[in-house]
Amino acid sequence: MVTAPIGRERELDALDATLADGVGGCTVVTGPAGIGKSYLLDAVIRRARERGTTVATRRAFELDRAVPLISLASALRNCDPPSASFGWLPGESGNTFRTLERLGASLETSAAERPLVVAIDDAQWIDEFSALAIRQLVPALASSPVRWLLARRPQPEGTPGQQVVSWLRQEGADEVVLGGLPEDAVGALCAQVLDAEVDSTVLALASGFGGSPLQVTQLMRSLRVTDQLVIADGVATVVGTELPSSFVAMVRQVLDQLPDDPRTVVRSSAVFGRPFGLGEVARLLGRRPAELVPLIELAVSASLLTDAGGVLTFVHDLVRRAVHSTLGEAVAVVLHREAATIARADGRPPMEIAEHLLSGGRDGRREAVDELRAAAADVAAMAPSTAADLLVHALDVLGEHGPGRTALVAEAVGLLAAAGRLDQARDLGRAALRAGLDRPTEARLLLGLAEAFKHAGHNATAVGYADQGLRHTDGDALAARLYAIRAHAQVYTGDLAGADRSGEQADVIGRAVGEPGASVFGLCARSLVAQARGDLGGALRHAEVATALADEVGGEALQRHPRIWLAAALTELDRLDEAAREIERGRDESDRLGTGWSAPLWHYYGAAVLLARGELEDAVAEANAGVAVAERLGSHQLALPLLGTLVRVAVERGAVDAAVEYRGRMEALVAGGMSAAPEDVEYPRGLVLAAVGDVGGALEVLGPLVDGLPERPVLIAQDPGAAATLVRILVEGGDVERAEVVARTAAAVAARNAPRPEADRPGSANGAGVDPGVDRGGLAGLVGGAAHAAGLLNRDLSALRTAIEAFRRTPRRLALATALADAAAAADAGASADAGDLVGFESESESESGAEAWRAEALALASACGAHRLRRSLTSPANATAPTSGRAATHAGVSLEADPDHPSADDGSVSIGSALERLSPAERRVALLVADGLTNHQVAAHLHLSRHTVDSHLRKIFAKWTIQSRVALATVVARDLPTREPDASSTPQR
Fold first, then answer.
1. Where does the record place the HTH luxR-type domain (predicted)?
2. CA distance linking residue 681 with residue 684, whole number of Å
3. Distance from C-alpha of 670 to C-alpha of 663, rounded to nearest angstrom
4. Rounded to two decimals, what is the model's pTM?
5. CATH topology for 9-177?
């Protein structure tokens, strides 16, 4: 059994117990430099090895930031025992998304064979891409036996490593905080170093260093090599008078006891801020490597250097810095210049070369700027924030009037914006604009700002920057790109006409100047405009043209992912299977292209397809996965509409508490300056208020949305059932006038998208374009929505029958269930059965179908969808009949308030038998495959889901069953289904 470092027995036992459990998650070990984190981590790792756990470990260094993924990839490549799963690392440079996906799959594969511990010391220096990977992988692999151990000091703040550790702590990672050793442990440590008992003179001196193991150890070594203590009869006593006053002084005393040659080797080596080889030191000093071997051995014996497999490092970075401080300025300049020459010859990262040049005097500053710029280019694709830091540093070195500053500022602004550091990007950009730039450079800078602020959800600001940039262009490729980003931003500021014009300009100019990416993005904006106006044919037409162009030319055009908007248009037309296929193909393209930015949008539109089908449980998992991905990517603006989706689904499921919580998160983002379409923000807000009984508050929120509905009916186009929901809330609140606006708008959208005779269609002999397939499913949904709204408003049973018949011809089960429930309630109340004629659509009456039959069918559908709010309303005696007091009365059928006698959480969380029965069907499918031994990636492929959706299902399964590991899950499944054989089609691939 590995013994604990002195004074750390309790911490070691706690960490060891966590690793022995074999559960996923993360533990952070925090403490100041020299407090013993490394020794504790080493002891934990050695115990893990004794248990047969695979261990991947590495100490991070400050220069790690020069090489994306080196902190994590180096640990995994050198894991013990070796694993073929990580042989491809680092690989796929520049393709962030694909690398992360493959890395997650490799970790799952390795952990499926034996538990894995990933331990990184000095985690404050983790490179930016490794930090991003850890942020994504820790929660994604929480169900797998992958345990992360990160040891870090609190300083410096703000590094990628510190940021990811802070995020992990906020998300619930365990933390072990190391303080100074107690007095008895300090005494034991002194005795261990000196190999003798110690008396009060030693303890008195050692007690002045705050219980820091490194400083106490260094003090004992300093006293011993300078003969300032004696050991008599096995007891050490301090006898010296020139006692060290600081840590640097202690190191200097040890250093001064070395002969001249080994002392020179140690001092010169201090210019390397990373592990180094004997050959590098030899070249630095102009000596043959063989000559230095005995000198290095003396340095190792003096506990200044360590030799691990031919790689030399200082025993601690504090020791290296203390040694470096003994170099005079002139000597340091010469050594760093020579180190820069060696680094360049060895092909070391440009950032390392630049650091040496900056320490090599003023003569190297211009050269250092070039190296910093090259370093930024090296890491920009995978670590944009680090690249931005390098360029900002280069600007500081260059000075206010240095040559080439203008172009460097434009690069820096783009990188700062890409990294989400918008305030810095804006401030630096404005300063550059005030200083004056040439027109092309200014336009490029403004494009970078416009794109950054658009993607961060600050749409009005993005429009302003695009407008400024367009004043400096003249129909060129830059203009096409500015028009495209302007079009998308204008959609969300409400300027639909301007957005359509901008999208058209982007398309026309892009085709003329050979900028197909701008054409595709402009067409996608035009598709969004058509959706917003309720023109489903136009939305589909623009999306199909954009997709065809992107498929034809590939490259940047394909990276715009027009299938996102094609899937949206198909969903509105109720062509849900086609939409799902486009989403699946788009996800595959995103994986192949490495365009991770699109992942939250695939989840958003995937959730929209599921919500339209009434598959509420799967919709929740899909939207939750999208929010998680958006937050891990730092794309919080894309989380906003996903949270809106979660609000809507939670209300339908009767989970009002969850809906309120989602609304709070959504409103926090809005308060931070982010914006999204009103149907993604205001409509969900209104639903929550109505669900908790605050109808007045709901009217206040929904009023402006309804007022703009005739010009922007996208809510009804996306969800025809939303028209009836709005009418219900408005009538209950007494705002019949606005309810009439909703009903008229729904009828107008249905009329606009009604199929026309062939001769009247665009593209026919009498037409001028193409009007694709609005009659292939979309019409019935829109007619059903319009008839449902009219039936509720006018108490018209015939209109409600029309709605039922229309919804039967669509895959919208929940919309059908709601129409059936309202028709049953209206029939119970003796509503008028006058025939209703809606935009030329004629429906057949359902023969001999009474209120009970409608109610029974609605109940079956609501139960199948997981629409517990509707189900409870249908089974509540209070809602068995409807009021009869006219149009202004509350319309029955679907209660606006949550049932206070029923928990607002999932019904599936209530124990009704076996553990598997407590899961939803979607969760049960995942649980069975995981029990068969499949990894999350394999489950995702088997079920045609995203890996993030599988992660979301597993988190809910673990929470419902109160378990922490896949082994425990398999045990539960085996207990519930003892005779079950694994699915032969899902055999895991080893």
1. 912-977
2. 6
3. 10
4. 0.69
5. Rossmann fold (3.40.50)
